[in-house]
Amino acid sequence: MDPGHGGRKDPGAVSRTGLKESDINLSIALATQLELERLNISSVLTRTGNYASLLPIRALLADALNADALISIHHNSPSANPSSTPGTEVYVQSKSDRSQRLGALIYEKTFAYLSSITNINWVSRSDAGVIQVLNSKGSDAYGIIRRPATPSILLELSYLSNPSEAELMATDAYAKNISKAIAAGVQSFLMTDKTISDPANKIRRYNPGSGLGSGSCDDALTSP
Ligand SMILES: [Zn+2]
Question: Hey, which CATH number is domain 2-220, 3.30.70.580, 1.20.58.1480, 3.10.20.30, 3.40.630.40?
């Protein structure tokens, strides 16, 4: 698992109340690790504290360990429109059926948990869901999933930039339940033949001018 961002210079998105994405990503990764342990699934984190870790190292750790899956954990921040449902996004590898299956299974669980919470004023982009995000060359735009041969996905669980969602993220219940949802998706991926009917073939073109990726999640982006 890769808790996105970290270190003094890269907190990722920051909520209006000062909640840092790097901290939330790490606490969710640690909580997910505990859930996976309960399911007898071993895991390794690309960082275990608040420090910077270079993208090439983080992206290739899963291959070096011969892992079954790499999951990068993020919380979104670019502006999005009010929505009746959570704007959860899961970026999958365009050339990997296994990444697309993993992404669809984890999306199903995380979206179901978030959707079950009442009294949140969600925001979402219109193409939210399981998506392939491609750069101008037709490759996966996000380096953390473009580099590994390991089936890899990047989660943007919900919007830290939205005060209503940020309030939820500050609760222990959120950490506990979202990590259970991620772990359940991993368990389905590793231990069942389950597939999801969602083909996970929606494509978003990464366009630096569009605002996508500007700001918070650049560390997961291109670079050589
Ligand atoms: Zn991020």
Answer: 3.40.630.40
Question: Measured in Å, how far apart are the chain's first and last C-alpha atoms?
Answer: 22
CA of 217 to the centre of ligand 1 (A): 4
DSSP code at position 218: G
The encoded tokens of residue 81 equal 């429109």
9-64 pLDDT, tens digit each? 999 999 999 999 999 999 999 999 999 999 999 999 999 999 999 999 999 999 99
C-alpha 105 to ligand 1 mean position (Å)? 21
Say how many Å lie between the CA of residue 196 and the centre of ligand 1: 26
Q: Ligand 1 mean position to 90 CA, how many Å?
A: 12
Distances (CA, A) of 15 to 103, 111, 140, 162, 190: 26, 21, 28, 8, 34
CA 172 to centroid of ligand 1, rounded, Å? 20
CA of 29 to the centre of ligand 1 (A): 13
What's the CA-to-centroid distance between 112 and ligand 1, angstroms?
Answer: 21
pTM summary value = 0.93
Tell me the β-bridge partners of 204: 133
